[in-house]
Amino acid sequence: MSLWIWLLTACVLAYAWKLVGYFVPARFLEEPRTSRVAGTMTIGLLASLAVVNAVVSGQALAADARLGALAAAAIALVVRAPFLVVVIAGAGTAALLRMMGWG
Amino acid sequence: MKLLASPAVRVGISISIATGLYGVSFGALAVTSGLNFWQTMALSLLLFSGGSQFAFIGVVAGGGSGIAAMSAATLLGMRNGIYGMQLNALLRPTGWRKYVGAQLTIDESTATSTGQADPAEQRRGFWAAGVGVYVLWNLFTAVGALAGSGLGDPKQWGLDGAAVAAFLALLWPRLKGREPMAIAVACAVATVIAVPFVPPGVPILVAAVVAALVGWFSHGRRDEGLEPDVEPYGGHHAGRHQDTGSMPPCAERAEGADPGAGA
Pfam families recorded for this chain (chain A) (predicted)? Predict the structure, then answer.
């Protein structure tokens, strides 16, 4: 029962985080510096998410099949493959490498 | 048909499928870590933020307390607030859209939306990815929770590799020029350095802070270079204008004084 309480608290707080961003005053967002920060932050968050998903395992760094997925996706992007092809290349490479016994 | 012609909707659908399928792994892992079916579904339906959900069950599976699981999930969810701020500036939702959009504010919907240049496409991308991921993520969470560990490890299907590829693909079009590239590299390095020292999820926030600082300070420098009459030089200009402005009256006065002196 107590797990339910913490679980639902986590759900409420998660929604609170999401919603709070939508209520930041508009004049704050109209500043050119804010929009610039929003731009650099998007790049930073995406780069970080890619790295976290590629080499982070819990609180440690790990070199496994996901690194292969990252490389395959980069190659697909260099040859201008469409988004879905890039994603499939990543998944396929990771699956293949694991089948071959790596990571 | 018209919707499918939109590049943002196509990206949104692709990412929905890739992410949605990964819900199987969440569902399966959640029940094996000790949650029951409805607790698992509550996380996907109500919390709805992949990283936070995995953090929650990760702590529970490791024997952690409910409050520790909640704290980890909440810490990880902080970035959704930053996303909300960005999306609010970009899409300007009103009324109910704000409240529904908030629940759909996650990595994938934000990335799909901010990856578009055209405002209409940004809007379509957000809703396509948000609704798409929500529906498929919950559907596949249920499949995973019911099938339990019978499906085997979803990693064997390379689904974690799909996530890596998706984030790189969303980042890629933004890496035009030296500055975005430098920001991406700096944030990637900051993430890797932070990983061993802070709880899971926090490295992403560290990267966000690095990116924000770069944005904040490089803005000042750029202004100085491109527009000499903003603050830093503005003071000098004003000074000079005052000097030259006060000169002629002085000269006039001097000239005016001269005849007087001559007379």
Answer: AzlD
- Among A1-15, B70-84, B244-258, the range scoring the smallest mean pLDDT is B244-258
pLDDT, tens only, B131-147 = 999 999 999 999 989 98
CB B108 within 8 A of CB B19: yes
Q: What is the pTM of this model?
A: 0.66
Q: Which residues of B, range 183-242, sit inside 8 Å of A by Cβ?
A: 183-188, 190-192, 195-196, 198-200, 203-204, 206-208, 210-212, 214-216, 218-219
Total residues found in chain B within this entry = 263
Interface touch B84/A17, C-beta < 8 Å: yes
Helices B202-226 + B178-194 axis angle, to 10: 150
B186 pLDDT exceeds 60?
yes
| pLDDT tens digits for range B167-183 | 898 789 889 889 999 99
Mean pLDDT of A57-85: 91
Min CA distance, B11 vs chain A (Å)? Answer: 6
State ipTM: 0.86
**Distance from C-alpha of B8 to C-alpha of B39, rounded to nearest angstrom:** 33
Contacts of A4 in chain B (CB under 8 A): 39
- Cross-chain CB nearest to A10 (options B73, B79, B183): B73
Asked if residue B82 lies in contact with residue B208, where contact means CB atoms within 8 angstroms, the answer is yes
Q: Buried b / exposed e across B189-227, counting CB within 10 Å, b at 16+?
A: ebbbebbeeeebbbbbbbbbebbbebbeebbeeebeeee
The amino acid sitting at B59 is V
Contact B73 A69 (CB under 8 A): no
